[in-house]
Automatic annotation (TrEMBL):
Gene3D superfamilies: 1.10.530.10, Tetratricopeptide repeat domain. This is Transglycosylase SLT domain-containing protein. Belongs to the transglycosylase Slt family. InterPro entries: Lysozyme-like_dom_sf, Sel1-like, TPR-like_helical_dom_sf, Transglycosylase_SLT_dom_1. Residues 141-237 form the Transglycosylase SLT domain.
């Protein structure tokens, strides 16, 4: 109910304002480019546009609050904004609501009043990552946590797959930061493989599915992510493909654990394919 009231209020802002959505497209495009360099400045633009009822700005601002980019992480505010954008037909907002559940209704103060958003503390920068890679890494960490996957493991997979490059394309048509092939993208409802949050969500959901299938066995999960679970099941272990064996080795160098390091998986039996018991030969006396 509250969300509907918020939606009506913001929609009326559009109708009564001098600005319209078409005039905002260029400004929002510029703000989107700012997200990697100065996400708070982008948030300032999104807040103003969101107050005017610009749907895309509501979605973009929600994503900043969801991941804590430029503004303090606030999943309630993010879900509230996503709900408003979704009610106005924004498809990406609708999909994100599957991950960021609505647990309450609270709009950011900068959407309710003409004030600047609170600036978040600057994240600790990894000297080995550029600005774009840092943003991608933060998205992976958040989405992995939401789906019960150790962020360090998801990051290890992404680093081996694409080097945290959202535009990567392999000779085998694997695409995006998590290198999803078309079949896997369709399986996990990823419509735009070059949309970082969509791609990461699809890849992380696949990892979670594999972790459940192989009881947290990291080597088997990595091998399946590379060669497919069908090949791992067929060979009852890591397939004898040099590419897959090298891939598993690289992942284990970055994530040196035999079992997935979360409370839910750490104590699981990773002996997925036990050796069949050998039958004893019975001596026949003649």
């Amino acid at each position: 109910m509250l969300t509907t009231i918020f939606s009506i209020t913001l929609a009326l802002s559009v109708a009564s304002g001098n600005d319209n959505e078409e005039q905002w497209q260029a400004r929002l495009a510029k703000a989107t480019q700012q997200e990697t360099r100065n996400p708070w400045a982008a948030a300032v633009t999104y807040c103003y546009a969101a107050r005017l009822g610009i749907t895309e700005a509501q979605y973009r601002l929600a994503m900043l609050y969801a991941f804590g980019f430029g503004v303090p992480e606030d999943r309630v505010a993010a879900a509230s904004l996503l709900s408003i954008a979704a009610e106005q037909g924004h498809q990406e907002a609708q999909k994100m609501l599957e991950t960021i559940r609505i647990t309450g209704h609270r709009l950011p103060r900068c959407v309710e009043a003409d004030v600047e958003p609170v600036m978040s503390k600057l994240p600790i920068q990894n000297a080995k990552m550029n600005a774009n890679q840092q943003v991608v890494a933060n998205i992976i960490s958040k989405v992995a946590t939401w789906h019960g996957v150790d962020p360090s493991f998801a990051l290890s997979i992404a680093k081996v797959e694409s080097g945290l490059n959202s535009s990567a394309v392999s000779p085998k048509s694997a695409m995006g930061v998590m290198q999803l092939i078309p079949e896997t993208a369709a399986r996990f409802n990823v419509k735009d493989v070059f949309n970082t949050s969509q791609n990461v969500k699809g890849g992380v959901r696949y990892l979670r599915w594999l972790l459940d299938r192989y009881q947290g066995n990291i080597a088997l999960v990595a091998a399946s992510y590379n060669a497919g679970e069908g090949k791992v099941d067929h060979y009852r272990g890591i397939p004898p493909y040099p590419e897959t064996q090298q891939y598993v080795k690289k992942v284990l160098q970055l994530y040196p654990f035999s079992v997935h390091q979360t409370a839910a998986d750490r104590d699981r039996d990773i002996n997925v394919f036990p050796e069949p018991a050998k039958s004893k030969k019975t001596k026949v006396y003649r």
